[in-house]
TrEMBL record:
InterPro entries: DNA_brk_join_enz (IPR011010), Integrase-like_cat_sf (IPR013762), Phage_Integrase (IPR050808)
Phylogenetic classification of the source organism: Bacteria, Pseudomonadati, Pseudomonadota, Betaproteobacteria, Burkholderiales
Keyword annotations of the record: DNA integration, DNA recombination
Protein name: Phage integrase
Family, as annotated: Belongs to the 'phage' integrase family.
Length: 116
């Protein structure tokens, strides 16, 4: 809109009055409430175990739940980040929101594929 006003395509910039019309934003963030840990097994049985849209998606969703990692960290995971013998997943700092290297202990019984 600024460009259109500056180049004479509109007589006035209607956006310039927004700060005077709309109420100030509080900046307060409302976070999604966490699921109580006791509800997770039933949730997994109902929504994840029967997920039919693809084995890779189902496995990634289960891994996301088990590690409580961010979805982008799970989606961007590469095999070299995993120590399968130790059951550790180490995410490099450049892929972390806080830019700090993080390691998760992963529940190894869930690392097997559905084929065994």
């Amino acid at each position: 809109m600024q460009w259109a006003w500056a180049h004479g395509h509109v007589a006035a910039n209607p956006v310039s009055v927004i700060d005077h019309i709309l109420p100030k934003q509080t900046g307060k963030k409302e976070h999604q409430p966490a699921m109580p840990w006791r509800d997770i097994p039933a949730f997994v049985r109902k929504h994840v175990a029967e997920f039919k849209q693809g084995e890779a998606t189902r496995a990634a969703l289960l891994f996301l739940i088990l590690t409580a990692a961010r979805s982008g960290e799970v989606r961007g995971a590469t095999w070299d980040e995993f120590d399968l013998k130790a059951g550790i997943w180490t995410v490099p700092a450049e892929r972390m929101k806080a830019k700090e290297r993080t390691a998760w202990r992963c529940p190894r019984p869930h690392w097997r594929s559905s084929s065994g």
